[in-house]
Q: What sequence folds into this?
């Protein structure tokens, strides 16, 4: 039987299989809408259907908010992940067998609902099973798998029959449903539920020893003294600071451009009028760059730190978005020759893909799983995820409206400003959490010096952070 870091990796891999499929859901409209618009399409759609297929997915996430809060607290992280996986499977079966657009609406709604559950329960599970020195890479694996899913849907949907993505998703989800149940539950959750013997057994499997048992037990007792109500999320200083940081980053992810770009990438590339690239292949390359960057960055999260990567990522993204904004602005004014300068948006988009996944697109989910204290973690992450969906909905609606009335350059200028502001926010507001236990992070957020530490430099860092 596997134990220690090997079991942590296996658990993370199987736990994030549904994240892979969520990535397929999230990016589904970009390659599928052109397919559905073909004369031979199995399902006929209108322009209004296109907008609804994007926004109804996000609406499902909002509806899933109270369900998520209930599940992760009442049945645990592991069973919540399995519940999301089952709903996900139903959604893909509906997509694969649909013959009317109304069935696609239902499937997209269910996909958004389960994604809310999954994007809360999976990061919590990963952060709570991982050792401090591996928490960054294991937590980052969530977005690696999401990006794998995006790459899959971009690579499969334009070229193979409509039902094939559903088959791919179904195989992965059934695999997760069959195998994940035998893996350990979070020892933090078990300790919180008063199941100390089960917590010991889970910790022994995951860590190979019980060295952290008393630390976990003490932390859970301490955090449970503050009741996990909505008021505590805002009245307790460390919770309030955590929520402020996560809330801003969830907004920044959307408004630095990634959601409109991913959901409309093929259309954006076509409207550059560039003759330098094939649009379908460029879209695949875009997500491939994101995937490679996600994998590489996840291994540096615990070396370079969350804060440094977030600052650099924001600056890179802001620069690329500014280039895209200027290109579309000049194109609107008729002052750019796309036959000569059409390579510029290609370079900018690819650099943006790498820049986004090296920080803004990876760090927030890691911080969300680290910053909230145990007693409000489910509530804080669920509310943050609900706001993530809400911001995504607002961003898509604003983007579509502005593009229709003003052109591409205006939203890209807005995305540019948000990206640069995020770099400033990260520098002045966000604490560095690399190498710290979940208990030490709470001390850091309270700006209180810990009583003991294994790192001779740790106290100094906690004081000045």
A:
């Amino acid at each position: 039987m596997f134990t220690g870091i090997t079991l942590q990796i296996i658990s993370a891999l199987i736990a994030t299989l549904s994240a892979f499929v969520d990535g397929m859901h999230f990016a589904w409209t970009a390659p599928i809408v052109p397919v559905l618009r073909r004369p031979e399409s199995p399902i006929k759609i209108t322009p209004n259907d296109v907008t609804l297929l994007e926004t109804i997915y996000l609406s499902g996430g909002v509806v899933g908010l109270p369900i998520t809060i209930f599940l992760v607290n009442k049945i645990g992280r592991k069973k919540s992940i399995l519940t999301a996986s089952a709903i996900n499977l139903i959604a893909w079966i509906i997509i694969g067998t649909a013959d009317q657009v109304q069935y696609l609406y239902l499937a997209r709604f269910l996909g958004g609902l389960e994604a809310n559950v999954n994007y809360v329960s999976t990061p919590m599970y990963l952060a709570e099973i991982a050792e401090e020195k591996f928490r960054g890479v294991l937590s980052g694996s969530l977005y690696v798998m999401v990006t794998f899913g995006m790459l899959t849907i971009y690579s499969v949907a334009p070229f193979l029959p409509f039902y094939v993505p559903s088959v791919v998703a179904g195989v992965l989800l059934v695999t997760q449903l069959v195998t994940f149940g035998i893996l350990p539950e979070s020892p933090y959750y078990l300790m919180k539920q008063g199941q100390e013997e089960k917590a010991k057994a889970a910790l022994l499997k995951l860590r190979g020893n019980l060295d952290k048992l008393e630390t976990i037990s003490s932390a859970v007792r301490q955090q449970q003294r503050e009741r996990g109500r909505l008021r505590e999320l805002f009245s307790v200083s460390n919770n309030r600071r955590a929520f402020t940081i996560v809330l801003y980053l969830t907004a920044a992810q959307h408004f630095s451009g990634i959601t409109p770009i991913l959901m409309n990438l093929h259309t954006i590339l076509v409207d550059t009028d560039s003759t330098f690239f094939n649009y379908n292949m460029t879209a695949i390359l875009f997500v491939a760059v994101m995937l490679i960057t996600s994998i590489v960055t996840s291994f540096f999260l615990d070396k370079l730190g969350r804060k440094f990567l977030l600052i650099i990522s924001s600056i890179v993204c802001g620069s690329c978005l500014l280039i895209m904004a200027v290109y579309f602005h000049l194109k609107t004014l008729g002052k750019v020759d796309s036959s000569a300068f059409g390579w510029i948006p290609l370079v900018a988009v690819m650099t943006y893909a790498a820049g986004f996944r090296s920080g803004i697109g990876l760090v927030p989910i890691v911080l969300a799983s680290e910053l909230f204290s145990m007693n409000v973690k489910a509530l804080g992450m669920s509310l943050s995820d609900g706001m993530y969906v809400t911001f995504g909905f607002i961003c898509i609606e604003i983007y579509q409206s502005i593009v229709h009335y003003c052109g591409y350059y205006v939203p890209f200028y807005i995305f540019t400003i948000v990206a640069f502001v995020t770099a400033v926010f990260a520098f002045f507001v966000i604490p560095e959490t690399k190498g710290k236990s979940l208990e030490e992070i709470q001390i850091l957020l309270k700006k209180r010096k810990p009583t003991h530490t294994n790192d001779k430099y740790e106290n100094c860092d906690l004081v000045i952070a």
Remarks:
- The chain has 24 helices and no strands.
- The two ends are 41 Å apart (CA to CA).
- The domain at 1-183 is CATH 1.20.1250.20 (Growth Hormone; Chain: A;).
- The CA atoms of residues 5 and 194 lie 25 Å apart.
